[in-house]
Design brief:
Elements: H1 3-36, H2 38-66
Helix pairs in contact: 1-2
């Protein structure tokens, strides 16, 4: 494993841990926000899913551009 591969794996690990913690807390967050507005609770859930894939998409784009 070279340095770039190791750094990418470490970054992916930290991203997965951060999103895992938020996913663990998501039911409580959605219930709290759902008391205020069900639409806002749904929007938070959609934002979480989009952010999860968006972070990896942006990271992949960044890594691909560094290769050029």
């Amino acid at each position: 494993m070279d340095r770039n591969t190791r750094n990418a794996a470490i970054a992916a690990l930290w991203i997965m841990i951060a999103f895992g913690v938020v996913a663990f807390l998501m039911p409580k967050i959605m219930l709290a926000v759902g008391d205020y507005s069900t639409v806002a609770a749904g929007a938070i859930a959609v934002f979480f899913v989009v952010a999860f894939f968006g972070v990896f998409w942006l990271r992949g784009r960044s890594q691909r551009n560094k290769g050029n």
